């Protein structure tokens, strides 16, 4: 009995301590201390975007020596790897976003966050023109701000190749609104198929879900739709569920070209078991209201469908093209902005930048580099830039102290000796600060969820690669993403959503 009493006491103490710690951390996060105000004597860094690259930079940036302004049309960070889970209601949309102000209000110096879209950048005048495109617009909705340094991290938009009907009739899977729209349309298709008197042909059309693009976005979404069908729709709509069909269309000979061959085979066989029809070497030529025109082996076919999701890859945003047009001799890569190995925009030697070296940095999906356009790359680049700005701040501080010391008129020989020593130390510091290390990417592996509680992973292992797939990899996938989520709030919400879905299933009501 005494053992049980002791166990009870220890458990109670554990619950109190962990509850208290949890409460302390959450309250500290909610009520951070006072921040330093904007300082006119400091230089201004303008950051465009609030995605992976920009948020990682903001997280690591010491703002004490800078005035920082963040401009983005969305005032939050979106954890894209879990977006397909939101599309079928496994997770709530609020669980995978984190307000940008949550990051900025923990900074030493207050950071200005402006919810707006950058419309134009003038690299000579160092200004950004921005405008508010949100549904509620005030009397003033355009503005121009000055910068000393610009960090360009606006990501990419979905590539449609100008294929007719894609923009008009397809859903996308890039932003939170895309996932929410998809969820509503999926349920609308199912409810419309259940409408009394619907013809058999129309029911089959409405229940045909087409995913275009066999990259990781298309694969993960197809897997999630399959889970929704198996776990929930089958019990809520038993008369319809068997007729729901998922087709994945890919122009290349195989899906997931970035994964190793055995994982591609594993994904294809898992999809076969899950009755997801993969059509490779099939190119979408047109998307209509109720059908999609595809071409394979030189033959065109029309596939009736209820819902089509377009996951055809990335392309540049118009603003990025505009920025490139200012530097036609150095910005020639059609995949994105060219940067040097310190992430500075490549500008001609006769650059319009009067300082001679570019004051624009670019990172993430808007750049053309040897790395894949992934969150991993963008966040490592953001962290690198935070360190680079840290070094630059030290350099600026040292330079200003140096000019103070150089001007000082010290009559006392002892004090003059001290002054010379300090100059010596600062010059050494400056020499070190000049040697800024280039960006180095460390690949942590590729992971993707393929449905049926299975995931695939290509992980660097020693000097080679470990390719693994299955249920254990799925548990690893979950724990890896849970730990990389932005905040304790996100981690708590996602974990409780997973539990909620396991216990109660996904919600089938349509908003
Ligand atoms: P983004 O994160 O896209 O951020 C761009 C920011 O710029 C946004 O805040 C946007 O609102 C803002 N912006 C846009 N236009 C303007 C403008 N005119 N002015 C100012 N701001 C602007 N990668 C992985 O490594 N692992 C994964 O598991 C993974 N899963 C993914 C799943 C999905 C469904 C998707 C779509 C992508 C996934 N990716 C994944 C890729 C990853 O999301 C991107 O590589 C990453 O978001 C790139 O970061 P970024 O900062 O360059 O751009
Ligand atoms: P993607 O570029 O990887 O794949 C798009 C696919 O669509 C291509 O295979 C292309 O052949 C196909 N396609 C394009 N047009 C087509 C047409 N008309 N008909 C048929 N097929 C067509 O794009 P995705 O999946 O959106 O990924 C974008 C980036 O985000 C990639 O770099 C990817 O690595 C990353 N990402 C990573 C994830 C992960 O690591 N789990 C998850 C999602 C995205």
Any chance you could write out the topology, listing elements then pairs?
Elements: H1 2-30, E1 43-48, H2 52-60, E2 66-72, E3 76-78, H3 83-87, E4 97-99, H4 100-104, E5 111-115, E6 117-122, E7 127-131, E8 142-146, E9 149-152, E10 157-158, H5 166-169, E11 171-172, H6 176-193, H7 200-206, E12 208-212, H8 216-236, H9 238-241, E13 245-249, H10 261-273, E14 276-279, E15 283-287, E16 291-296, E17 299-304, E18 307-310, E19 314-315, H11 318-325, E20 360-362, H12 375-407, H13 413-434, E21 446-451, E22 454-461, E23 464-470, H14 471-484, H15 488-504
Parallel strand pairs: 1-2, 1-9, 2-5, 9-20, 11-18, 12-13, 12-18, 13-14
Antiparallel strand pairs: 3-4, 6-7, 7-8, 10-19, 15-16, 16-17, 21-22, 22-23
Instruction: Give the ligands present.
Output: flavin-adenine dinucleotide, 1,4-dihydronicotinamide adenine dinucleotide
Strand content: 15-25%
- Give helix % range: 40-55%
**N-C termini distance:** 54 Å
Shape: globular
Structure description:
This protein is an alpha/beta fold. The chain is built from 15 helices and 23 strands. Helix 2 packs parallel to helix 12, helix 6 packs antiparallel against helix 7 and helix 12 runs antiparallel to helix 13. It is globular and about 100 Å long. The model has no long low-confidence stretch (mean pLDDT 93). The structure holds flavin-adenine dinucleotide and 1,4-dihydronicotinamide adenine dinucleotide. The site of 1,4-dihydronicotinamide adenine dinucleotide has 28 residues, from helix 8, strand 15 and strand 21.
């Amino acid at each position: 009995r005494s053992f049980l009493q002791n166990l009870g006491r220890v458990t109670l103490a554990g619950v109190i301590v962990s509850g208290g710690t949890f409460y302390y951390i959450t309250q500290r996060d909610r009520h951070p201390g006072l921040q330093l105000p904007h300082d006119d004597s400091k230089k201004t860094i303008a950051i465009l975007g609030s995605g992976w690259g920009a948020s990682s930079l903001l997280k690591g940036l010491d703002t004490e020596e800078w005035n920082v302004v963040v401009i983005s049309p969305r005032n939050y960070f979106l954890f894209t790897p879990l977006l397909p889970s939101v599309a079928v209601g496994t997770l709530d949309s609020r669980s995978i976003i984190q307000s940008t102000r949550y990051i900025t209000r923990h900074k030493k110096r207050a950071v200005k966050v402006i919810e707006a879209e950058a419309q134009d950048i003038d690299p000579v005048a160092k200004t950004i023109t921005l405008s508010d495109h949100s549904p509620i617009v005030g009397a003033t909705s355009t503005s121009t701000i000055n910068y000393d340094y610009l960090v360009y991290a606006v990501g990419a938009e979905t590539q449609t190749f100008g294929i007719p009907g894609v923009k008009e009739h397809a859903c996308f899977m890039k932003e939170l609104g895309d996932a929410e729209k998809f969820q509503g349309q999926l349920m609308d298709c199912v409810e419309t198929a259940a409408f009394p008197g619907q013809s058999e042909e129309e029911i089959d059309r409405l229940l045909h879900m087409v995913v275009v693009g066999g990259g990781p976005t298309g694969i993960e979404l197809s897997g999630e739709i399959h889970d929704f069908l198996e776990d929930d729709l089958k019990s809520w709509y038993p008369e319809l569920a068997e007729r729901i069909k998922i087709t994945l269309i890919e122009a290349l000979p195989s899906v997931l070209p970035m994964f190793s061959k055995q994982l591609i085979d594993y994904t294809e066989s898992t999809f076969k078991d899950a009755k997801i029809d993969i059509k490779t070497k099939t190119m979408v030529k047109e998307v209509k209201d109720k059908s999609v025109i595809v071409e394979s082996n030189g033959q065109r076919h029309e596939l009736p469908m209820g819902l089509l999701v377009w996951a055809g890859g990335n392309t540049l945003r118009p603003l990025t093209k505009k920025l490139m047009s200012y530097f036609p001799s150095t910005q020639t890569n059609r995949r994105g902005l060219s940067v040097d190995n310190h992430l500075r925009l490549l500008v001609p030697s006769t650059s319009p930048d009067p300082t001679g070296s570019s004051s624009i940095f670019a990172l993430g999906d808007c750049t053309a580099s040897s790395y894949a356009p992934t969150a991993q790359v963008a966040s490592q680049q953001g962290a690198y830039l935070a360190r680079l700005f840290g070094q630059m701040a030290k350099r600026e501080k040292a330079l200003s102290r140096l000019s103070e010391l150089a001007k000082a008129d010290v009559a006392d020989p002892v004090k003059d000796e001290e002054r010379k020593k300090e100059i010596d130390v600062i010059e050494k510091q400056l020499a070190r600060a000049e040697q800024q290390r280039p960006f180095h990417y460390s690949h942590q592996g590729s992971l993707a969820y393929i449905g049926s509680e299975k995931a695939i992973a290509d992980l660097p292992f020693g000097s080679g690669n470990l390719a693994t797939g299955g249920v254990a990899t799925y548990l690893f996938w979950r724990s890896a993403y849970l730990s990389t989520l932005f905040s304790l709030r996100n981690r708590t919400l996602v974990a409780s959503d997973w539990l909620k879905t396991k216990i109660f299933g996904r919600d089938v009501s349509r908003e």
